[in-house]
């Protein structure tokens, strides 16, 4: 499969019941089996359900190019960590991604920079692609957002560097003030910050792609164009029909990128 030109991710958070998760996954799997951009790999799609649904969701997407991952993982690979799920087990199950450092984990569960760094290292150590969430708590200038995201990124890579790990990291720029809002951050603001994050790509042994999250929905990718590498979607993709619209937008964008390279 080719390297995706556009990457889309969907977190189901804790919105769905078990049966709702399965029904959504079956509908999206049907889309993925037949959509030319997903079949070709030009548009990459990953899905992050709740932990208990992972085996069934992995089965639902088994014959597609959709990659399934987890919304969190433990910083340790095994041991007396009651209630936690290790990257070792996630990889053994067939997961390919692990979300790390979401604003809700930072806010409600007190996740520190050190813990997030340990989780990112655990993800890379187990062959999982980290989806590292970055974003400022309060709305300000794009330059201040870039500076804070750079601090968060540097802190998040510390443990991986110490362990001499390498790999690809998806940077999900999610300004905390836009999460759960009625609309996303302003288009030009998103573009400026994502451009600033792409300039981090020279950080030694790590490679990065930059996607935007934070009340992202249909229409946003078409407006942003190639100024972002994709979207990290939440509730606005919980209707399969809305996700299908976004996949169509991503496919059209991938085609314009292909044409510009010819």
TrEMBL record:
Reaction equations catalysed: D-glyceraldehyde 3-phosphate = dihydroxyacetone phosphate
Q: Which CDD domains match?
A: TIM (cd00311)
Q: Which InterPro entries match?
A: Aldolase_TIM, TIM_sf, Triosephosphate_isomerase
Q: Which Gene3D superfamilies does this entry report, sorted A to Z?
A: Aldolase class I
Primary location class: cytoplasm
What terms describe the molecular function in GO for this protein? Answer: triose-phosphate isomerase activity
First-tier enzyme category under EC: isomerase
| Localization, UniProt | Cytoplasm
| Listed Pfam families | TIM
| Pathway annotation from the record | Carbohydrate degradation; glycolysis; D-glyceraldehyde 3-phosphate from glycerone phosphate: step 1/1; Carbohydrate biosynthesis; gluconeogenesis
**This protein's UniProt keywords:** Cytoplasm, Gluconeogenesis, Glycolysis, Isomerase
**EC numbers, comma separated:** 5.3.1.1
Q: Is the keyword Membrane in the record? A: no
- GO BP annotations, alphabetical order: gluconeogenesis; glyceraldehyde-3-phosphate biosynthetic process; glycerol catabolic process; glycolytic process
Q: Which GO terms describe its cellular component?
A: cytosol
Into which family does the record put it? Belongs to the triosephosphate isomerase family.
Under the heading PANTHER family, the entry gives: TRIOSEPHOSPHATE ISOMERASE (PTHR21139)
**Oligomer status and interactors:** Homodimer.
Q: Name it.
A: Triosephosphate isomerase
Q: Which organism is it from?
A: Erwinia typographi
């Amino acid at each position: 499969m080719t390297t995706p030109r556009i990457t889309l991710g969907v977190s189901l958070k804790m919105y769905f019941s078990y049966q709702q998760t399965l029904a959504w996954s079956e509908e999206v799997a049907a889309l993925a089996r037949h959509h030319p951009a997903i079949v070709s790999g030009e548009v990459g799609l990953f899905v992050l359900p709740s932990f208990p649904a992972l085996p069934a969701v992995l089965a639902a997407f088994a014959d597609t190019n959709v990659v399934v991952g987890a919304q969190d993982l433990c910083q340790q690979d095994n041991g007396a960590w009651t209630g936690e799920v290790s990257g070792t087990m996630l990889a053994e199950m067939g997961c390919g991604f692990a979300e790390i450092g979401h604003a809700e984990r930072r806010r409600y569960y007190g996740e520190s920079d050190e813990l997030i760094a340990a989780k990112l290292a655990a993800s890379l150590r187990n062959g999982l692609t980290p989806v590292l969430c970055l974003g400022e708590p309060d709305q300000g200038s794009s330059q201040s957002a870039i500076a804070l995201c750079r601090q968060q990124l540097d802190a998040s890579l510390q443990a991986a560097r110490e362990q001499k790990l390498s790999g690809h990291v998806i940077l999900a720029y999610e300004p905390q003030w836009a999460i759960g809002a009625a609309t996303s951050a302003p288009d030009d603001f998103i573009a400026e910050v994502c451009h600033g994050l792409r300039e981090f790509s020279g950080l030694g042994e790590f490679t990065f792609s930059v996607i935007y999250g934070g009340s992202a929905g249909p229409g946003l990718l078409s407006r942003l164009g190639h100024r972002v590498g994709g979207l990290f979607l939440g509730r606005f993709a919980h209707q399969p029909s809305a996700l299908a619209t976004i996949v169509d937008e991503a496919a059209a964008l991938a085609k314009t990128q292909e044409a510009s390279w010819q």
